[in-house]
Amino acid sequence: MQYEQYMSVSEEVQAALAQGKAVVALESTIISHGMPYPDNVKTALELEEIIRKQGAVPATIAILGGKIKVGLSRDEVEMLGKAKDVEKVSRRDLPFVVAKGLNGATTVASTMIIAALAGIRVFATGGIGGVHRRAQQTFDISADLTELARTDVAIVCAGAKSILDIGLTLEVLETYGVPVAGYQTDEFPAFYTRVSGYRVDYRCDSAAEVANAVKTKWDLGLRGGVVVANPVPTASEIDADLITKAIDQALASCEEKGVSGKDTTPFLLAKVKEITGGQSLITNIALVKNNAKVAADIAVALAAKK
Question: Does the active-site annotation cover 27?
Fold first, then answer.
């Protein structure tokens, strides 16, 4: 394959894939753009450990010196967490960051692409990107949604980030034919909170049920991903009214400062953290750990079906 010259897969991940074992992809923007140091590195390593404890192999994905890496070492995670020259890489950025020999952290979209190339079918993240508020004027819609329409990877997430227009995000997913399954829930979660006011397409109460559905989808030749919406644990969620007010303040600040494009989400997340006195970061860490556990369970169940 031509792409193999650009990609390096760790020995652990290679061995797991060759033996048909469960593997879970992890993105790297959470390390370089989603959390401050040292929380970012600590969380990234804890996610890998959670996945291993559930019987799967973690594959954190990033671009280091222009090389696509599938499965990072502890030193590489540490370097990525401290580095200041890390590009945020989505589908459009991938060829240029690789060609220029740069360091890059993968978003949901580019992590999906790389995971699929490597043969990984399950991916754990915090929340997917989607349709930004006021997208009717700005046309700011995440590439995550179009990637979900064409790349065969199941994403376990705590719904869409609350800073987005969740209703429009779900409408776009419906248009693209992307199933949204609630993991032990009928309601689509809103990242920091378990409630959004919107229902999921289907409810799945076990990892085996999710694995059966996604395998059936791909066996039928229905290309594209599946969103597995896994609510933040009840003990860690933020009050819906509190987080809504914080997000409204953050959005106002974003507009006032003229922040746009791929800088929008990191700016808003940092602002929400500031407004909530750090509570949003605590919740973010709790939900992504929960997603890693569920993703590993699904990957194990999927591997058993081969």
Answer: yes
Please say whether the beta carbons of 204 and 222 come within 8 A.
no
Break the chain into its structural domains and give their ranges. Answer: 2-304
194, 231 Cβ separation under 8 angstroms: yes
- pTM here is 0.94
CATH of domain 2-304: 3.40.1790.10
Over the stretch 190-236, which tens digit does the pLDDT of each residue have? 999 999 999 999 999 999 999 999 999 999 999 999 999 999 999 99
Q: Which of 69, 88, 161, 271 is catalytic?
A: 161
Please answer whether residues 157 and 228 qualify as being in contact, where contact means their C-beta atoms are separated by less than 8 angstroms: yes
DSSP class of residue 48 equals H
Task: Using alpha carbons, select from 202, 149, 157, 154 the residue that is nearest to residue 178.
Answer: 149
Report helix, strand or coil for 173: helix
